[in-house]
Amino acid sequence: MKTTISLNRDQQTLTIVIPGDLTSTHVRELRAEIDAVLAESPVHWQLLLFDLTAAKMVDSMGLNLIVAVYKAAQRSGAKMRLTCSNPNVHRALIFTRLDKFVELVMV
To answer: What is the mean pLDDT of residues 87-101?
Structure first.
């Protein structure tokens, strides 16, 4: 699974698009990609957009990855916005109280 990661310098936004479910099957690969970009990226972004609109399912490993990305954004002084479109994913994010830390947008 290949993640789309882009940095928009004009809007100071780092966008991470997850192309499918965020489950233990794909988390290791995704974490390596995301960690590499976060490590290389100078802190020129103020907003991290985490796009889960293609995901129909998020398991505990996926939630752990979201928390790790949130912590990286927080260390950089950036805010995090998470978008999803599946009601089950949205429910899981609210149930785990991630909506208290990141801006959660249902599209």
So the answer is: 96
pTM more than 0.85: yes
For helices 60-75 and 24-40, the axis angle rounded to 10 degrees is: 10
Range of the domain at 23: 4-106
Contact present, 43 and 7 (Cβ < 8 Å): no
- How does pLDDT run across 25-83, given as a tens digit for each residue? 989 888 988 888 877 766 577 899 999 999 999 999 999 999 999 998 898 889 999 99
CATH number at residue 19: 3.30.750.24
Q: What are the start-end ranges of the H helices in the chain?
A: 24-40, 60-75, 87-95
